[in-house]
Design a protein that fits this description.
There is one protein chain. With 288 residues, this protein is of the alpha/beta class. It is built from 11 helices and 11 strands. It has a 6-stranded mixed beta sheet with strand order 2-1-3-10-4-11. Strands 7-6-8-5-9 form a 5-stranded mixed beta sheet. Helix 2 links the parallel strand 1 and strand 2. The radius of gyration is 30 Å and the shape is globular. The termini are far apart.
């Protein structure tokens, strides 16, 4: 009888342990699911960034850092003159973050200025409220090809040479910021663009102007300091604020994008010391 009771007790214990193990196995399944859930819940994002051509090298470097820290995010860039980018946005292009080389192109999209026909002629309202900021400052420079064959030394000298028709200058078109800054310099020196037309060549963005100087197709060119640095060109003079004003690069998140939250997160990153170091490395001055 004792043997029978002992056997029965042992059998009951085995069954109890088996049931407990089954419960533990069942309980472990939701835990495993919970561990996997966050990975499955990570959202991927593609951010469309339109930026002034003069930012290409430095912004690409900053994007590389951002994507390394955020592997679920892809930043797709479009680089061109700010005027061309503005036109594309007006025509319906998808853009989450816009960085222009002058306030003029940004103002044209700013709803807070829609009653100002001069700054926002079409009354557009594309800027996400509270996202616009002045990100960087650049400098307008007089740069020359390797060896400076024409012996150009300053804007003062350039003005005299242009008036006498003794120099070939590359500049931006009048609808792009670098060209608009150049025209202000012309006004400062009293240079008649039409009279000097035979001694001027143009570029649709600052990269095209920089290429003309790099290839020695002209005696000199008026480009941004950052582009001169990236192209390894010699800067012989730098325009003052009195000559052409400050060269401000505003940035913002736009409502015509498809990933506004991701766009804002990326813009926030561009204001960090890590990202700003990429811009400073080529000659930009941070304004945030």
């Amino acid at each position: 009888m004792k043997k029978y009771l002992s056997l029965l007790l042992s059998l009951s214990l085995v069954l109890a342990l088996s049931a407990c193990g089954a419960k533990n196995e069942t309980a472990s399944q939701p835990a495993e699911a919970e561990e996997k859930a966050p990975a499955e819940a990570l959202e991927t994002a593609e951010i469309s960034v339109f930026a002034a051509a003069s930012m290409q090298e430095s912004l690409d470097a900053a994007i590389q850092l951002y994507e390394a820290a955020n592997p679920n995010v892809t930043v797709v860039t479009t680089y061109d003159s700010s005027g061309t980018l503005l036109k594309q946005i007006q025509e319906g292009a998808v853009c989450d973050v816009f960085i222009s080389a002058a306030p003029k192109q940004m103002n044209a999209l700013d709803g807070s200025l829609k009653d100002n026909a001069e700054k926002n002629p079409n009354g557009l309202d594309y800027i996400v409220e509270g996202s616009r900021l002045n990100l960087l400052e650049n400098k307008v420079t007089l740069s020359v090809p390797v060896g400076n064959p024409a012996g150009i030394e300053s804007f003062d000298q350039l003005a005299e040479l242009l008036k006498n028709g003794d120099v070939m200058l590359a500049m931006g078109n009048s609808d792009v910021p670098v060209g608009q800054y150049t025209l202000k310099i012309f006004d400062y020196y009293g240079i008649d663009e039409a009279a000097a037309a035979s001694k001027l060549t143009y570029g649709s963005n600052v990269k095209e102007v920089t290429t003309q100087v790099s290839e020695g197709a002209v005696d000199c060119g008026i480009i941004y300091g950052t582009d001169a640095f990236s192209a390894g060109l010699t800067v012989v003079d730098e325009a003052t604020a009195e000559m052409c004003g400050q060269v401000i690069y505003p940035a913002t998140v736009l409502s015509c994008g498809e990933a506004p939250e991701a766009g804002q997160a990326f813009l926030d990153f561009l204001c960090t010391g890590e990202a700003l170091a990429c811009f400073e490395a080529v000659g930009f001055s941070p304004l945030v």
